[in-house]
Fold this sequence. Notes:
Blueprint: E1 2-6, H1 10-22, E2 27-31, E3 43-46, H2 48-57, H3 59-67, E4 70-73, E5 75-79, E6 85-86, E7 90-95, H4 96-109, E8 113-115, E9 131-134, H5 141-145, H6 147-150, E10 152-166, E11 173-180, E12 183-193, E13 196-203, H7 205-210, H8 218-228, H9 230-233, E14 238-239, E15 251-258, E16 262-263, E17 266-268, H10 283-300, H11 304-334, H12 344-353, H13 369-378, H14 381-402
Amino acid sequence: MKIACVGGGPSGLYVAILAKLRDPGHEVTVIERNPAGVTHGWGVVFGEDFLDQLFANDPVSARDIRAITSMWNDQHIRIADRPTAHMGGYGFSVGRKRLLDILAARARGLGVDVRFEQEFRDLSEVADADLVVAGDGVNSRLRQQFAEHFQPTLDAGRNKYIWLGTHKVFNAFTFAFEQTPAGWIWFHAYRFSPDTSTCIVECAPETWKELGFDELGPDESTRLLEDIFRRHLDGHSLINQMAGLGKTPWLNFTRVSNQVWFHDNVVLVGDSAHTTHFSIGSGTRLAIEDAIALADSVHARPDLHSALEAYQDERRAAVRIRQTEADNSTRWFEEVDRYIGADPVRFTYSMWERRLGPPAEQGAARSPRWRYQLHLATQNAALRGVRQGAGSVRRTLRERRRR
Length: 403
């Protein structure tokens, strides 16, 4: 089978890797418009389940990814000068660039033809392909070309956000909220390498405009944000990848969904098929899961149409759950003024519950009572240490199982 993957992101590269692993006879090509090693974004986050999936499907690239993975322990919620509250838990992160470098090298090692700096314009360029995998992102050209069939829906979120980096190392996943004369503004930060962290700043559009970000250039914008968040950055600067191009990349998050995921031999994966708000950190995981499901389905079924139909049914149902959680999280952050007046501990619990959506009725519980008791225990340093110790044991056991 000839397979053309349009887009060299995680989904396209992982489809290519798994296709070759399942059948070395496949002729697989990846077409990527950017030069090798060039990508926008900083670190991506994931959990233990994601690592399990990587090791189960390709232990070679999984070991390379695990070797450069950073871990963050606990989640800190800081509201201005109020005491820090704790949400508990842990997770992993890795630099997006290094992740893509590993996947591209692995694909090439398996015989995949990875073509960088090649602009894809039309389906005619891959006319000889039996399967065309559209992994070309939020603004997918293939999805637009067959929009009448895919029936995409693109919804812009209300809040403004900007994806920055910093050499301030956040060893815990940190949410920091600061009140300005224009309203609340906050960031989500976590380390993804020994000396660098992702820092995503978000605020309401009214706050963004009143603070002057609609008119400030890239250097002025980062300086203002550094001043707003100075108590959390400890003197470190914020880094804007686009500053050299004279751009200040404030965005509104775009939620992508599609009624149909394939058309003839063209199939959507990753951000071309769906997006989930960055506040739940599931984008890369969902893209990889798409790739696994697609490779499995195509390998198991000789008829391409039935394979793509099975893939669509499986992934559309799974993604719907995540998108619902992401929509609830998005709405919570868009209405943060409703909750931030509460004491930090209660506010933090509301943040933990945000994926569950609003209660069915005023005052109704969205989670079992024991969960709130665990949350209260997490605020105690000694009990928090016990919880982290238990997490360490679980991590060790899972690492052994993966090896």
